[in-house]
Amino acid sequence: MKKKSLLIYSLAVVLFTLIFSCNTQKVVSTSKDKKIKVFFLAGQSNMEGRARARNLTPDDLKRLSKAQKNVTLYYNHLPPTPLQISTPAKHTQKKFGAKKMFGPELFFGINMSEKYPNHKIVLIKRSKGGMSLYGAWNPNWSLDKAKVMKEDDDPKLYSDFIAYAKEVLSTMDTSQYELDGMLWVQGESDSGKKKNGTIPADTYKDNLKNLIQGVRKEFRKPDLPFMIFQVGHGKVVQAMRDIAREDKNVVLIPQSNDKNSEFYFEKNPRPLGHYKYKSMKKIGKLFFEYYEKYFK
Fold it and tell me: Could you point out which of 55, 72, 208, 231 has its C-alpha 20 to 30 Å from the C-alpha of 103?
């Protein structure tokens, strides 16, 4: 009888332990899932975005309105706002014939919001048109390099971005958020041999590696996901491909010249260039899909 009672007691203890373990795991998982999801966005003009906001459909605007409830955008040192379209500089407005525009953050944020409606999502974006990785974005910035790119009067974007992101993050308790990834759209300025010679393209791989490693080190996140949208050409694109192949936490969204390809992105005719509404919408969505597929 005593043996039977002991057996029943032992089984009860085991059962209680299993139930307690499951419940504890569930609580931890839920707590982690509800952390603020933080993403960095950086690059040049196609990260700034030249897509005309007037082409947004009523459905797009309805989705944006919902996303504004849980997505906050920090953009180029401006006061934080709910996710929104941007107002570019006057000369850009005149050039593109639009007062309001948007970049990859818009539909990346909308899709993130729809997938994670119970999370707060923070997008920290630093971008400036025409800037190179060899010059302004170089983690190993020097005046000589900046002069090669005619960027010696422009901001030191890498160090500025690091300081800006740290400033934003300092407003949150470290236990409240998680760094989930960085989106990078840059490479056109380093591709142009006629304008700046071959050195920017020749060194793009090393410079991009340094930037990725630098960001990870600065934010103590050695496995920070890094998502690149393919822009530029020649050695710059090859560098992106090489790094995506060599680093398991880097992925590249490719481009194709085939108009029937999933990865064809229509631009405005020259001399405007830059991605149109549908292309920019697709770029933002692809950033989201790549995050979900490779880094969720």
Answer: 208
